[in-house]
Amino acid sequence: MATLAYSATAAAAAATTKLAHNRVISFPKSSFFSSPNKPKTIFTNLTPLKSSAKQIDLSAIEVDSPLSSTAAAAATKSLKSRLRNNETLYGIFLLSFSPTLAEISGLAGYDFAVVDMEHGPGGISDALQCLRALAATRTPAILRLPESSATWAKKALDLGPQGIMFPMIESQKSAKKAVSYCRFPPAGVRGSAHTVVRASGYGINEGYLSNYEEELLIMCQVESEDAVKKIEEIAAVDGVDCVQMGPLDLSASMGYLWDPGHKKVREMMRTAEKGVLKGGGGGGGGGGGAYLAGFAMPHDGPLELKSRGYHMVSGAVDVGLFRNAAVEDVRRFKMSLMEGSDDDDEREQTKDGDDKYWSE
């Protein structure tokens, strides 16, 4: 008879299971099934990490990055702390759900990246891979939800993004609901699994419950004409840190789907901006107002947004960047075929261009 046991002491307390041919395998008794009268001690050797300014400390990760020392230092600060320092942050939207493009975006030096589950094809599992790629480059991630609901907010927040963006916020009431989705009871309605989810370092960060409200950036999107009329109330809601303007949906709601640069749309945008800035732009509501965030457009560039008081500017979309590069690459090739390149000078230029391409 063969008996497998961890030690003589463990074997004495082991539960045995008889298998075929009279073989016996011994299993140590689990503390989960010990006597209810005895205290249960599980993972006694696990020492939780103390809380820090960021939920997860990534300072030990070595990244071969072109980021300057200034950018690297900024990456150790939270988005909310940088906003309070009156910085203007520049970010990118990620619709492809490609971890590779997410990683490149982080290494390029963007201040934040929005993983877009509203218009991108991916869901929670896909977003997680992008968050991991961004974390490796110390780039804060914001998750944009497909809809403003408690279920989507719960699943997104459990991944541990530094920010969350709620689409189509139409009133003060819907803004308050959005904030409640981000708060545990009794302050909100967020479901709790904080002992095992990524947001708390899978339960290792014992300071998570004390700091999560302070560290999470809550963004509400104003994207319709009706919402603009109530934007001051939305921006004043306690817990709303940023009001994100949605120029495309706003133009559509006004009947100018194909013309977001229309004069009436621009006027409505200016009205909305003034409504947010009227609250002081201090972030988080509570009399401090919310910060202004928005998308750069062909007719309204990043510097123009900054000059009007925007503190968060998204200037690019990963799919759009690749599309433009691909279209231009094909255009240049076809133009070269039409123009011809038989002479030595043109061949030399092509050679130099190829060398430059591969060196990049």
TrEMBL record:
<protein>
    <recommendedName>
        <fullName>HpcH/HpaI aldolase/citrate lyase domain-containing protein</fullName>
    </recommendedName>
</protein>
<dbReference type="InterPro" id="IPR015813">
    <property type="entry name" value="Pyrv/PenolPyrv_kinase-like_dom"/>
</dbReference>
<dbReference type="GO" id="GO:0046872">
    <property type="term" value="F:metal ion binding"/>
</dbReference>
<feature type="region of interest" description="Disordered">
    <location>
        <begin position="336"/>
        <end position="360"/>
    </location>
</feature>
<dbReference type="InterPro" id="IPR040442">
    <property type="entry name" value="Pyrv_kinase-like_dom_sf"/>
</dbReference>
<dbReference type="Pfam" id="PF03328">
    <property type="entry name" value="HpcH_HpaI"/>
</dbReference>
<dbReference type="GO" id="GO:0016832">
    <property type="term" value="F:aldehyde-lyase activity"/>
</dbReference>
<keyword id="KW-0479">Metal-binding</keyword>
<dbReference type="GO" id="GO:0005737">
    <property type="term" value="C:cytoplasm"/>
</dbReference>
<feature type="domain" description="HpcH/HpaI aldolase/citrate lyase">
    <location>
        <begin position="90"/>
        <end position="325"/>
    </location>
</feature>
<feature type="compositionally biased region" description="Basic and acidic residues">
    <location>
        <begin position="348"/>
        <end position="360"/>
    </location>
</feature>
<dbReference type="InterPro" id="IPR050251">
    <property type="entry name" value="HpcH-HpaI_aldolase"/>
</dbReference>
<comment type="similarity">
    <text>Belongs to the HpcH/HpaI aldolase family.</text>
</comment>
<keyword id="KW-0456">Lyase</keyword>
<dbReference type="InterPro" id="IPR005000">
    <property type="entry name" value="Aldolase/citrate-lyase_domain"/>
</dbReference>
